[in-house]
Design the sequence.
């Protein structure tokens, strides 16, 4: 069975600085996706970034980037130039891939609450 | 714009009541999911559905059932609510890669 672990329950960062959220996972699968989702206070969960395991290049989306270490089963999220609107709970998630499709079943970590301070 | 709605944001029910949580999507997605979210545990999958009238148990199905009579609607049923089912319940649909979430229902069972 797959597991996802986020070992930092809470983090804080000053506005405009950089912060890294950690995530490790355990799987025997070779074909899968990894995700970071963001859940702002009292608002809906949204996708931040996606990484496909067969791609060596780390995914980036504007100020958000990942450090994907497949052998180490590590998937950290770096937020550059932090903004007040980045304050949220962040979840790391794993999805197994079957052939050309995916299972749709996400395995989530425990979450990290990030506070961006002015 | 993608839209997933849930029938209630907050709900308070008594122990033993039958509870219905409704989720509606307007994206014509086949896969829909129900999760519960608890502090320190993240999100855990209760049930999912990959087509009308098709359902499959997730990781924590005990005490829950689901119904999917129409593609756009996926209901979670608590047959006899208990205090340990007090939680945040999130519905989601599956795009090609991404899951789209509803706003959540915070259920309190007293």
Sequence:
């Amino acid at each position: 069975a797959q597991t996802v672990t986020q070992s930092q329950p809470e983090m804080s960062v000053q506005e405009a600085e950089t912060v890294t959220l950690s995530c490790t996972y355990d799987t025997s699968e070779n074909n899968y996706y990894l995700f970071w989702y963001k859940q702002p206070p009292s608002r809906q969960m949204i996708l931040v970034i996606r990484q496909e395991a067969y791609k060596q290049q780390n995914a980036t989306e504007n100020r958000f980037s990942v450090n994907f270490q497949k052998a180490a089963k590590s998937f950290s999220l770096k937020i550059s130039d932090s903004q007040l609107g980045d304050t949220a709970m962040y979840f790391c998630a794993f999805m197994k891939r079957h052939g050309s499709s995916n299972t749709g079943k996400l395995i989530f970590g425990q979450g990290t609450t990030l506070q961006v301070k002015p | 714009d993608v839209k997933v709605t849930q029938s209630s944001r907050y709900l308070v029910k008594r122990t033993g009541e039958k509870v219905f949580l409704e989720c509606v999507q307007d994206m014509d997605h086949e896969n829909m999911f129900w999760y519960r979210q608890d502090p320190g545990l993240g999100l855990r999958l209760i049930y999912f559905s990959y087509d009308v009238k098709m359902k499959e148990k997730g990781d924590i199905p005990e005490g829950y059932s689901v119904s999917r009579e129409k593609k756009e609607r996926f209901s979670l049923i608590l047959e006899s609510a208990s205090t340990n089912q007090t939680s945040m319940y999130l519905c989601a649909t599956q795009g090609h890669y991404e899951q789209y979430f509803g706003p959540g229902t915070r259920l309190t069972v007293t």
User: Anything to note?
Assistant: Chain B has a mean pLDDT of 94.
